[in-house]
Write a sequence for this structure.
């Protein structure tokens, strides 16, 4: 027996097949449209409904039509004949018109109810914002169309690939799923339409105080140490939690964060990501399997973009702030070579070559006075252990960056472990690290440079013991602050041409990777700053 | 400006019953900050505001209690200038880096 299809999905299909797919894949968006939609279903006082008896939230099922669903309200007249009334929150500035998706939805609800043996005498839409009720008489043609739409929906859901986004279609500008669907970004050209993805009203919360404990009380995350309260933060304002070093988290806090489909990332105090927690519920389980297959087969096209964009951004940063024109020229050449690189081995060679040249001149991007007074040295990039303050600061910021790309990857349902440049076999969050590459220079490196140049961190914020340099608590907080200001700040997107925050840009890149994997995005392109 | 822009809301309540008042206060604390005994500032997108409003509606007794919502406009335009406090003021959760 074929699976029954939710009537709401059929309505989505009637609006746009891709929206049905996204919904079925578990993509949730938190927008005004969705919220007023949900509100509309909680039927407020409908003064026009004057029937004797009224039932709310009536579940229906029809094996004949192949659907299940729920009626907002069913009204009974004195002969026990039923009228279905669906609530819709069409904005007041639009006319209260019964659209095709609405007509199909009530046709299926009515059909299913009749199938269950109830006498249905009518259907209506109640426009909550207009306080207007519109009767929807159904013709045999309507019923046939609804049946066809169920079949269409089944085809969409059974397809191997996601339906492509609509092209330059007016539906998109009033679609609740535009922020995850990215119809305008697909061609990788400047976006002419006004982008309606708003700034988030949430923040990434960093817990940094060594020896402190964080827990939830009265709807807020509270942090205290040795019985003293250090601060609180409203839980509804949390976008994600990053734990740095020795901070204790209550299990209630972790549960609360996961329940909200947000993630927690744990880092060491030097910025190495030690682990993360994500909610069991998440979108795109199907594409995630495809990601593993793609990762296994290799996608050199993606790997090339990651490296080329990384090198391009190193060149740009060095050109803007440093003094090494020949190195910049060489980096530009390497960037082009990366795009034609025949193998991953060659790519790693190019990446290494570029890094050597870039970091050779890294110190020229710092103000000479700062270098002199702080006694800064930097000969070569040493990952772990860091040998000097600059390396320690870079390590720390790369950790922050990894926490962000991890969150972006997890939010769109991909697996952080299956990468395309970094090897998935090495038990690292390979895909998150892949995405980090293009953001290293414009985010992490530039945060470190700014912090030193502006005196926000000083050499005395670091301590060196047995050849290992560590960053202290004050320095960590200064870098986190600099980093957060950077990623929540906007820039002109070099591909799409609109202003966007760096954090949202990371999410978009993760979604472009998803698009390449699920077949709706022809190719991936890294962000190359100008 | 978009419909989804973050707005600042001033929310005040008048609730006689202790249990309901505590419930409402706790809910508001999870969204924003208490600035006076029964006055809160909540910075949120309208979508989340609608959700909060529904949750509060379900908590109160509409016959005796009241909750007042005042939309102070978008945060972008607002720049926190519309609030002026004399005496001891309480902190409002900042929108800058969140580090605890
Ligand atoms: S944004 Fe456009 S293409 Fe994407 S789901 Fe919505 S209507 Fe369909």
């Amino acid at each position: 027996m074929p699976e029954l299809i939710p009537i709401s999905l059929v309505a989505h299909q009637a609006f746009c097949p891709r929206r049905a797919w996204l919904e079925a894949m578990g993509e949730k968006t938190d927008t005004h449209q969705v919220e007023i939609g949900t509100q509309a279903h909680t039927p407020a006082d409908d003064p026009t409904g004057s029937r004797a008896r009224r039932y709310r939230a009536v579940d229906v099922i029809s094996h004949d039509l192949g659907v299940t669903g729920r009626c907002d309200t069913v009204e009974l007249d004195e002969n026990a004949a039923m009228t279905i009334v669906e609530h819709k929150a069409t904005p007041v500035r639009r006319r209260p018109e019964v659209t095709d998706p609405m007509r199909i939805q009530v046709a299926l609800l009515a059909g299913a109810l009749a199938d269950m043996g109830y006498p249905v005498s009518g259907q209506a839409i109640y426009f909550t914002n207009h306080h207007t009720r519109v009767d929807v008489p159904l013709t045999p043609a309507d019923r046939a169309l609804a049946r066809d739409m169920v079949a269409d929906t089944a085809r969409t859901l059974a397809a191997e690939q996601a339906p492509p986004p609509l092209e330059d279609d007016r539906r998109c500008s009033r679609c609740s799923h535009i922020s995850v669907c990215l119809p305008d970004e697909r061609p990788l050209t400047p976006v002419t339409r006004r982008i309606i993805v708003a700034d988030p009203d949430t923040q990434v919360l960093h817990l940094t105080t060594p020896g402190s404990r964080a827990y939830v009380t009265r709807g807020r995350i509270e942090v205290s140490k040795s019985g003293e309260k250090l601060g609180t933060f409203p839980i509804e304002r949390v976008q994600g939690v990053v734990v740095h070093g020795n901070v204790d988290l209550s299990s209630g806090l972790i549960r609360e964060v996961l329940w909200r489909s947000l993630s927690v990332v744990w880092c060491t105090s030097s910025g190495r990501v030690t682990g993360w927690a994500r909610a069991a519920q998440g979108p795109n389980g199907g594409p995630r399997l495809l990601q593993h297959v793609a990762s296994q087969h290799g996608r050199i096209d993606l790997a090339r973009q990651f490296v080329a964009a990384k090198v391009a951004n190193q060149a740009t940063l060095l050109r803007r702030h440093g003094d090494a024109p020949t190195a910049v020229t060489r980096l530009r050449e390497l960037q082009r070579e990366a795009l034609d690189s025949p193998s991953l081995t060659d790519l790693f060679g190019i990446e290494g070559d570029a890094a050597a040249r870039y970091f050779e001149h890294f110190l020229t991007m710092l103000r000479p006075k700062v270098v002199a007074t702080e006694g800064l040295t930097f000969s070569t990039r040493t990952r772990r252990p860091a040998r000097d303050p600059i390396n320690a600061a870079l390590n720390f910021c790369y950790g922050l960056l990894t926490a962000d790309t991890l969150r972006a990857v997890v939010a769109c349902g991909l697996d952080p472990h299956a990468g395309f440049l970094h090897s998935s076999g090495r038990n690292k969050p390979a895909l998150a690290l892949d995405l980090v590459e293009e953001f290293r220079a414009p985010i992490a490196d530039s945060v470190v440079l700014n912090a030193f140049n502006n005196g926000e961190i000083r050499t005395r914020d670091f301590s060196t013991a047995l050849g290992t340099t560590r960053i202290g608590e004050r320095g960590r907080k200064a870098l986190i602050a600099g980093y957060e200001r950077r990623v929540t700040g906007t820039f002109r997107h070099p591909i799409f041409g609109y202003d966007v925050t760096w954090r949202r840009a990371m999410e978009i890149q993760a979604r472009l990777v998803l698009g390449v994997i699920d077949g709706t995005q022809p190719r991936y392109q890294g962000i190359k700053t100008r | 400006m978009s419909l989804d822009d973050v707005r600042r809301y001033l929310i005040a309540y008048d609730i006689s019953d202790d249990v309901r008042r505590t419930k409402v206060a706790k809910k508001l604390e999870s969204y924003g900050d208490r600035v006076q005994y029964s006055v809160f500032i909540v910075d949120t997108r309208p979508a989340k505001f609608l959700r909060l409003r529904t949750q509060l509606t379900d908590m109160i007794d509409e016959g005796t209690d009241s909750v007042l919502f005042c939309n102070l406009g978008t945060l972008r335009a607002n720049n926190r200038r519309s609030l002026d406090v004399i005496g001891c003021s309480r902190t409002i959760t900042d929108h800058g880096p969140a580090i605890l």
Summary: DSSP finds 18 helices and 18 strands in chain A.
